[in-house]
Specification:
The chain has 3 helices and 7 strands. The chain is of the alpha+beta class. Strands 1, 2, 3, 4, 5, 6 and 7 form a 7-stranded mixed sheet that branches. The longest helix is centred in the middle third of the chain and has 13 residues, at 49-61.
């Protein structure tokens, strides 16, 4: 966790597509504990956003992916009850094509699994995550004809 940061934390969210399904994790930690989301994490020094996405997919879910171009960029800012900034992430979501591996939740996830677009409406998740997933389904995918 990166609580009470001195600066915004640059991070990636990975929309991993496999046919008509997307890989989702149920968050084990704040922000968003218990909610479903796409895997992701902080960008490490010297990493490109694609390298960060591919590393996070391996570490967080045990999957190999081919990361594409950014889908969205937004700030996730949460304040505590005193108004202090508890979390501030600059999130860059990327679409990624599944290449292999079986989904398994790491220590920062309660569960992981593949979901169809119809199932998204039944899950507790931030609306902006739902929107970025739908955007990924509408765009050409990495490694596929445009």
């Amino acid at each position: 966790m990166r609580e009470y940061p001195e600066n915004p934390v640059p991070a990636v969210g990975i929309v991993i597509l496999n046919g008509d399904r997307v890989l989702l994790i149920q968050r084990a930690n704040e922000p968003g504990r218990g909610q479903w989301s796409v895997p992701g994490g902080a960008i490490e020094l010297g990493e490109t956003i694609q390298e960060a996405a591919q590393r996070e997919a391996r570490e967080e879910c045990g999957l190999e992916v081919e990361a594409g171009e950014p889908l969205s960029l937004y700030d996730l800012i949460q304040r505590d009850e005193d108004g202090r900034i508890r979390f501030h992430y600059l999130l860059i979501h990327l679409a990624a094509r599944y290449q292999g591996g079986e989904p398994r939740p790491a220590s920062d996830a309660l569960a992981a699994g593949w979901f169809t677009e119809a199932e998204l409406g039944t899950l507790e998740m931030p609306e902006r995550v739902r929107q970025v997933i739908r955007e990924a389904w509408r765009r050409p995918r990495p490694g596929s004809p445009g």
